[in-house]
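Step 1: inspect the first sequence and its C-alpha cells.
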Amino acid sequence: MRVKSETILPYSLLAPTLLFIVLLIVVPIFQAFLLAFQTADGDFTSANFLKMVTDTNFADALKFTLLLMVFIVPAQVVLALVMALLIHTRFKGHTFFLYIYAIPLAISDLAAGIAWLSIFTERGFLNSILYQTGVIDRPFLFLSYQNLPAMFGTIVVAESWRATAIVMVILLAGLQVIPRDYFEAADVFGATTLKRIFFVVLPLLRPSLQNALIIRTIFAFQTFSVVLALAGRVIPVLAGESYEWYANSRNANVASAYGVLILTFTVAATFVYFRLLRTSAAEAGFD
C-alpha cells in the first residue's frame, strides 16, 4: 500500500497544475484554432485568414508588433541583466532596491498604461516638470498622431518599465545558482568586470536567458493594454486588432485568426531561441 501511495503522490501533486493548463490554455487554443478555420455556420474555410490579411490595419499591426518586439525585448534583457548583476553584488540596501525594482510586477498592464498616460499627456507630469524648469517653453506632444516616433517611444518606455521586472527576477534567480567558485577563480586570474560578465556570467546564465527571452517575447507579441492606453488605434498591434474584431466587429472567427497568427509567431520565436541558446543538461546544472 505504501509503494502504491508513493507512486500516486507525484501525479496527485501535478494534477492541479495539469488541470489548470488543460482548462485555461490547451482547451482555449484548440477552440481558437477551430474558430479560425470555421465559418459562422460551422463549415471549414480559410476565408477568415484572407479577411485578416486584407484588413486595412493588418500590415500596420504586424509592423508595429514586430517593431515593439525588436525595440523592447533586447532593451529589457540588457536592463534586467544590469539590475540583476547590481543586486547580485549584495551591496548594502540591495534588498530594498530589489523591492523597488519589483513594484511593476504588482501593477496590471492597463493600470501601467494609464499611469504613463498621466506622465506623457500634453499637461502631464513630464511636460509640467520640463516647463517649470525652463527646458521647454511649450508642451511637447508626446502622444500626437502627427508624431508617431514619439508616440512609439512612449510605448517602448512604458512597456519596458512594466515588464522588465519579471525578466530581472528570472536572471537574478539564475545568478543565485551559479557557484561563487567561478567568480573567485575569475578574480584569481585577474579578470576585469566586463570579462567576468562575458566569459563567466553570460555562458553560465544561458538557460535563464533562454527562459527570459521566451517569456518576454511571448508577452511582447501580446502587448495590448499599454498601447491602447497611450495610442488607441493610432498604433495598431496584432493583439489589439484581435480585440477589435471580437468586441466591436463581433467576429470571433477573424479574431481567432489573429490569435492563431500570434501563437505561430511565438512558437517560431521559441524555436529560434532554443536553437540559438541551446543548453545541455550538464551546462544547465553546472556539472
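Step 2: inspect the second sequence and its C-alpha cells, then contrast the two.
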Amino acid sequence: MNLSEWFHVHFDEKDVFMKVDPPEKPGWEQSFAWKDIIRVCFENGDWMSSDTIYVFTNQREESYVIPTEADGGAEVWSEIIRRGLFDAELAIEMATQSEGFACFPPED
C-alpha cells in the first residue's frame, strides 16, 4: 500500500490538517495553525524513503512530520515556501541534493 493511500494532508487559509490511517495500525488526525509555525526543517529521503517536512509550532515541543509523498504533501511543501516559512533558495538547494537536512530559520 502506497503512503499516499493512507497519509492525507490538506490545508486552508488558517490550518493544516492530517488524517492518517496506516495499514494494520490505529489511525489518527492532527492539525495545526499556519500562524503557530516557528520553524520548518526538510530532510531529503533516499531512493527508498520519502522526503520529510518537520513543522515546529509554538503549541508543542515535538514537530509535526509530513512526508512529501503523502497525499497533499507536495502541495503543503509548496505552500510553506509560498508563505515564506522556508527559504525558497534553500528549498531549491535541497531539491538538487540526494541527501541532506536543513531548517529555516537557521539556528543562531
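Step 3: confirm your contrast with the notes below.
The first strand starts at residue 7 and ends at 11. The CA atoms of residues 6 and 21 lie 5 Å apart.
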